[in-house]
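Q: C-alpha cells for this one, please.
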Amino acid sequence: MKVLLAIHHRFELWNAPDWLGPRLKRDFPEHEFVQLKDLHGLIDEIVDAEVLIGWQLRPEQFKAARRLCWIHATTAAVHQLMFPELVASNVQVTNSSAIHGPVVAEHAIALVFALAKGLPFACMYQAQSHWGQQDLWRSDLRPREVQGATLGVIGLGAIGRECVGLAKALGMRVLASREHPDKGSEGAERVFGPAQLEQLLAEAEYVLLAAPLTSRTRAVFNDEAFSKMRRDAYFINVSRGDLVDELALERALLSKTIRAAALDVFQTEPLPAGSPLWGLENLLITPHSAALTERLWDRHYIRVTENLRRYLTGKPLLGEVPKQKVY
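A: Here is the predicted structure, written as C-alpha cells:
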C-alpha cells in the first residue's frame, strides 16, 4: 500500500515535520510512504496512492487518483475537499477535529475571559504607559464576572463539546445549538436546533461559534443574527471565517448592536492590512492561532497510526466525515 503525505502551508507549524514519513515507515515497514516537500509533485505521486494524508486536493488531482480509498485531513475543516466528484465517490474522508478541539476550546475560553475582563483595553493602556483604571471602568469593555454568565455554544463537535465542559467548570450556564438536537446536549442546559437559534441568541451573554462550514452555515451570522443578540453580548468565532458576514459584524460593532467580539478566523487570511476590522476598538483579533501547540504533530501521529491500523484491519475509522449527509 502506498501512503502519500502531501501537506503544505505558508505557516510552518501546519507543515508535516521531516520525521513523519520515516517514523511511519519504521512502524509500518511493509508499506510505502512518500512525503512531499511541497505540492508540485502531487498529481504524479497520487496516481497509485491508496491513502492521502493532507488537506489539499483539486478535482483534477482527484481524477488522477485511480487507487485512492481514504483521505486523512490534518485539519478539522474539510469543506475545501468537498467538491462534487469526491463527495459522490466511495473515498473515505477523516479529519483531525479531535486533535484540534481541546486546544481551540482553551483559546475560546481565553477569549471569553479577555472580553469579560477588558484585557484588550488593558493591553492598549500598557502600550501607552497609561494607568487606565478609570478609563477601563467607563469603557465598553467594563470588567464583569464570568461565573453565572450564560454562554451559547453553536456547534457541538470536538470544539463545542470541550467548550461546554470548560464553561460549566467555571460556573457558567451553557446553552447550545446543533444541527440535530436529538444527538444530545453534551452537558449543556438546553440544546436548540437551527430553527431555534434565535432563542439562544436572545439569552446568551457570550455567543461562541464552533460550527463546521457547509452550504447551510455559510454567512449564518449576518445582520439578522446579530440583531437577535443581546446588546450587552459578546460574539466569538473560532471555527471558520466564512460563517460570518464580516460587513454585518462591522456594522453590529459600530452601531453597538452587540457589545464586542473576538475573532480568530476570517474570510480572507491573512487578514488584509486595509481591512476595517483592524480599527474596531471593540473587536479582539487573534491571527488564527487557536490551534497552535508544540504537541500538535505528536497528537497527529497518534491519530494517523491508530487509523492506519484500523484501515488495514477493516475497522471503522476515527473521525470519519459523513460527506454525503453534510455536504
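A few notes: The chain is about 35% helix and 15% strand. The mean pLDDT is 97.
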